[in-house]
Design a protein that fits this description.
Layout (H helix, E strand, L loop, with lengths): L7 H14 L2 H10 L5 H8 L8 H26 L5 H24 L1 H4 L3 H20 L5
């Protein structure tokens, strides 16, 4: 039976899964609707480099911002999520995080993020929560 304490390796695995997979829904949506697949990445990059126009620099900044924000929320959920119904709680947390990030923080400090269509970004947050919970709950293999 697993102990009540999660390991750092579990945190890292869940953080990586969530970070790497969370942009899939909005990217698929942009492709399906003919939208700009770089819009959300440029918006995230602008959080760090607000006056930059170089796509390469914005992508690099977005990678840093996304990884850091994802790590922050990963640690919070790693500490808070129960071992039972982890997926359900992670999805609820992801919705609350989306509302906090996109509706409260972004309009005040990150207008390019606030300008993004909410529903694809909510889907990204749900993907983040699902990927995090599934990776967190995956048993270790030797």
């Amino acid at each position: 039976m697993p102990s009540g304490r999660r390991t750092t390796a579990e945190l890292v695995r869940a953080w990586l899964a969530a970070t790497l997979l969370s942009g899939l829904p909005s990217t698929v949506w942009a492709l399906a609707t003919g939208g700009d697949v770089t819009e959300a990445t440029r918006a995230a990059g602008a959080m760090l480099l607000s006056h930059e126009s170089s796509l390469a620099k914005l992508i690099a900044a977005a990678a840093l911002v996304h990884s850091a924000v994802s790590l922050f929320w990963s640690v919070a959920l790693w500490l808070a999520l129960p071992r039972r119904a982890t997926l359900e709680w992670a999805l609820l947390a992801a919705v609350l995080i989306a509302i906090f990030d996109l509706k409260l923080i972004a309009p005040v400090w990150f207008p390019s993020v606030a300008a993004l269509d909410f529903w694809p970004q909510l889907a990204d947050h749900l993907m983040w929560g699902a990927a995090f919970a599934i990776a967190l709950g995956r048993p270790r293999t030797l």
